[in-house]
């Protein structure tokens, strides 16, 4: 039997005007890597929430690793969730705990022996390429490093299933590549991965199974699938949104001074990109070289139409290839009249981080409810099976390094 099996599943939220999921049937086998794609609101997060038993299906049957989720008693839900790792777009790390403590906490709440924790935490941090960052707090890490901590926390008990909701959504292409390398390596150890994403470059390079949702229904299920985000984010709409985000007005895309090729007639968006995308999609043998293709795509600077049009938005972010504050201050200064000697303050603090990344996860900081907090964040599983892969591939290098790591962290 499939590891994950959905049979005619529908989900209607109490205030929903239409089903968030509408008669979905889907089997996912052990060891699969599945991309869930589809427009905003198509039901991707709802599907992941059902698998996690955060939400209950309105009708239909869901079985995960032999558990019939309709019949799972409430008291067994925390234990069930421990068999599943979950990774969020905004990391959901505990802001007041170090890297080491964030990962160790996942083991502490299930009563893992201190000596075991001391042995497991460095192993998993090494796997995700974070050796040397053990004593850093989340705000002292880049976005990519924070997501690696989240992956380490989700993976420390070697879950059978890893669910990821837009895990690269806040990251630049190069950092996303590093995250995908880690997820691919974890998948190759036998962990089943279901990942919701809008990132066409990742989907098209990795050529894993693609399940596409549209208005709560499965429109497509392909073994070595692709994704053209332009189908879901018509160029004119994306361009307008990007322009509005940057300049704060609603100028129609057609009137914007956009780079050649970034705007096309919205009625003609069903075309796949030019020869580059076509060859990326169909040029190589289907095999286990998705990461190599992704690396080649990232290094060539090809980010797909969705990536291209949001490029300037990405450049304003304060992590990844963030805007240089010096350059920004210099530009402001240069644009001022010569007789204006006012000091120019930078718009953001040099070490500013996205607010979401600093937020603790749900009620996870409530010390009196550590168990349910951990369950909410789903980072632990039963201590069965090998905790580490027999021969994991070399972990990718961290997205960036700093000089203030205090060495290998046996801080417990
Ligand atoms: N708690 C809720 N109550 C009512 N409606 C909801 C709730 N959560 C989601 N929905 C609705 O269900 C539909 C599917 O939402 P869902 O979040 O699953 O989409 P998604 O594909 O994950 O979107 P995105 O890519 O924007 O994250 C949407 O119409 C959404 O408005």
Automatic annotation (TrEMBL):
PROSITE patterns, A to Z: ABC_TRANSPORTER_1 (PS00211), ABC_TRANSPORTER_2 (PS50893)
InterPro entries: AAA+_ATPase, ABC_transporter-like_ATP-bd, ABC_transporter-like_CS, ABC_transpr_LolD-like, Cell_div_FtsE, P-loop_NTPase
Protein family membership: Belongs to the ABC transporter superfamily.
Domain called ABC transporter: residue spans: 4-240
Assembly mode: Homodimer. Forms a membrane-associated complex with FtsX.
Annotated compartments: Cell membrane
Cited function: Part of the ABC transporter FtsEX involved in cellular division. Has ATPase activity.
Name the record gives this protein: Cell division ATP-binding protein FtsE
Sequence ranges of Pro residues compositional bias: 387-398
Coiled-coil residue spans: none
Membrane topology category: Peripheral membrane protein
Domain of life per record: Bacteria
Bias kind Low complexity: ranges: 361-373
Molecular function terms from GO: ATP binding; ATP hydrolysis activity; transmembrane transporter activity
An annotated GO cellular component: plasma membrane
Gene3D superfamilies in UniProt: P-loop containing nucleotide triphosphate hydrolases
Skewed-composition ranges (Basic and acidic residues): 399-412
